[in-house]
Structures are given as structure tokens and as C-alpha cells.
Amino acid sequence: MKLSDINSEPHRRYNILTNEWVLVSPHRTKRPWQGKVEAAFVDSGISYDPNCYLCPGNTRAGGHQNETYEHTYVFTNDFASLKPDVEVDGVFEEGLLKSAVEKGLCRVICFSPNHKLTLPLMDAQDIERVVRVWQREYLEMGALDYINYVQIFENKGDTMGCSNPHPHGQIWASRFIPDEPAKEHQTQTAYFEKHGRSLLADYLRQELETKERVVVENEHFVALVPFWAVWPYELIVISRAHLQHLGQFDESQIAAYADILKRLTIRYDNLFTTSFPYSAGIHQAPTDGKDNSGWHFHMHFYPPLLRSASVKKFMVGYEMLGNPQRDFTAEYSAGVLRDLSEVHYLHAS
Ligand code: H2U
Ligand code: ZN
Asked: Among the atoms of ligand 1, which is closest to the Cα of residue 64?
């Protein structure tokens, strides 16, 4: 069967990275979406907020004072989920109850001193600085003997539980490999062992044959709606080269990564003329010193919005109990994102 035939019927799609399925029900979108536009997000105009715990020079909860930083700023999370100074030989097992003490590090990264900016509104050069910080942190934290995995992520927007509009992200680095990258480790490693090639390199090659789901591309990266996308406007950014981690990026790859981040987040903001919320994060090789040749650097963007700046998708009911489900297809979403401008609506005349 052809995809166009499958796409008129309820069907399942397979996620090659997690070994999971998504139910797609395109027949439920009888009416084409009318592209409801909300009142445009208004720029707060405040580039420094004396009450913001991330603005330069301000005092954070717990009494630490931020440096008067000019570009990026990294500090240890004052409410860290993982701590470095714990004994990890604490294992609890009683019948079917099992638990283990874990250690790690949590850091917060301010992307810019300017309170009102976000990645799509930052200069490409300043996004490059953020990428360099991610690279440095990955290498530094990963080099610690008790850190086996470094999770870099950004929660953006209050709908995603983000506590502060000041542009920032987080890093949680741990001794254990968390479940999501652990699933991807298993699938990528198995594929690499069987074929001697990267799973995502082969997937990217196939996607580039039709470009049906491709949204933005440049010399070193491609951003596309994955075939198995769950979230309405989910994206995956994949490096063209089979790189395992940020530590291998050269100058031109850093610049290209910043470029694709800027371009895709501008499209996101333009979609519903709002500061588009999402959880995004980098998946890359664990830092456990083992053979991670199968790993292929990529970044996921999971945005919650469905139809407008205020109507979001809920992962509830069948999705919590059965499988994730979506109505309009990944191909439809890719087309919508592809047709958007790369000039931010706040900068459009
Ligand atoms: P969110 O953007 O996802 O809300 O994360 C902000 C992080 O900043 C959060 O993990 C930390 C919180 O623990 N934080 C500090 O480290 N110091 C503060 O003064 C406030 C918030
Ligand atoms: Zn601020």
C-alpha cells in the first residue's frame, strides 16, 4: 500500500527510535483547519526585570547572586533534583519493591542577559554562544566519573511548566541513563551492530528522497516532522554527519546548528503568532566510556499546541492507557510549518 492510501484510514506508525507506536486517525480531520489566529503576543518591552531570578546581578532564591553577565550564564540549580555529594551504594530491595540512591548535577543556563528575548529573537551569533555552552557543559560534566548521561533541555512557556520567561534552559546530568535515551540507545545500537550504519543516517537519507516531512535544512542539519510524530508540530533535528555528540562539532557545525534552531523556532512563533511553547532537548551519546558508535546526535521538539495559541493537545484517556494518538498527519504538519515565513512576526513590517 502507498502512504497516501494508508493516510485516509486509521493506522499505526512505528517509532524506530523508541520501539513504540502512535495511532493516527486522519479521517477525523474532515474539515480543513481554518488557521485561527489569536491576538498577537505583545512584547513586554522589559529587557531587565528587577524581580527576575535569572536577570544579571539579581539575587536568586537561596541568596546566591547572579554575575552581571553579558552573554550566557551557567549556575548550579538551587533546587537541584540530583546532588553530587551522596553515597550511591544505597540500594533498597524488599520483595517487589526496588530503589537505588542516585547522584548527579543540575545546572541552569541563561541564554541571554536580555529578559525579553527567546531563541527565535536572539541573534544567530548569540545562539552560537549557547551551543558552545552546551558543548562545554556536555564535555565537562560528562568527564566526571559519576556522570554517565548529560540531558540538555529547554522548557519554554508557562503551558510547559516553565517558571520564568527569561530565556534559559537546564541540564540534568546523572549516573544512570534515563529511560528515553536508554530506549534510543538500544534501538540505535542494535541497528548499528546489524547494518554497520547509523539508524538516523539511513532514516534521514530516506526522508530526503521525498522531503515530504522536511521543514528546514542547511549544510549540516535537517529539521523534519518525524514519520511517527505524536505531538501535532513535533520536530526532530538530525545532523547530516553521523556525529555521536556535541563534543565533535566543529565551528561550521556549531554555526549551522544555531542557524537551524533560529529558523525553526521563528517558524514555530509564526505558526500561531505567539511565543511558541515547547519542551525540547538534545539526545546524544552517554558519557559512560562505553562504545556508543550507534548514537547519532539529534534534538527533539515537543510542542503542546494543537490549533491556536491557547488550544493544546492533551495526552489523556486512550493516550495514557493505550497509545498516543493524533488526527492530522505528520505530512500535513510539515507542510504547514514549511509554508511559514522565516521572518519573525514581531520583526515583520
Ligand atoms: P523552569 O524554567 O523549567 O521553571 O526551570 C527553572 C529552574 O531554575 C528550576 O529548575 C531553578 C529551578 O529549580 N531555580 C534556581 O535554581 N534558583 C532560583 O532562584 C529559582 C529557580
Ligand atoms: Zn530576567
From this structure: 19
Three-state SS for 11-32 is: EEEEECCCCEEEEECHHHCCCC
Atom of ligand 1 nearest to the CA of 78: 16
- Angle at which helices 124-142 and 251-271 pack, to 10 degrees? 120
Closest atom of ligand 1 to 60 CA is 19
- Specify the pTM: 0.95
Tens of pLDDT along 163-209? 799 999 999 999 999 999 999 999 999 999 999 999 999 999 999 99
How far is 243 from 310, CA to CA, in rounded Å? 37
Find all residues with CB under 8 Å of 84, minimum gap 6, and list them: 103, 104, 105, 146
Cβ–Cβ under 8 Å, residues 287 and 149: yes
Does residue 168 carry a catalytic annotation?
yes
Phi/psi at 185 (nearest 5 deg)? Answer: -65, -45
Residue 159 phi/psi, 5° resolution?
-65, -20
Residue nearest to atom 13 of ligand 1 (CA): 79
What pLDDT digit, counting tens, does each position of 101-124 carry?
999 999 999 999 999 999 999 999
Ordered by where they begin, the domains of the chain are 12-338 (3.30.428.10)
Tell me the three cell numbers of residue 150.
Answer: 548529560
Q: Which three cell numbers stand for residue 303?
A: 510542542
Q: Model confidence at 43, in pLDDT bands (50, 70, 90)?
A: low
Nearest CA to ligand 1 atom 12: 79
**The dihedral sign for the CA sequence 311, 314, 174, 138:** negative
Q: Which of 55, 170, 275 to mutate to test the pocket of ligand 1 (most atoms within 8 A of CB)?
A: 170
Mutate to test the pocket of ligand 1, among 106, 108, 302 (most ligand atoms within 8 A of CB): 108
Work out the burial of residue 69: count CB atoms within 10 Å of its CB; fewer than 13 is exposed, 13-18 middle, 19 or more buried: middle
Q: Which of 115, 168, 245, 283 is catalytic?
A: 168
Instruction: Kindly report, residue by residue over 240-280, the tens digit of the pLDDT.
Output: 999 999 999 999 999 999 999 999 999 999 999 999 999 99
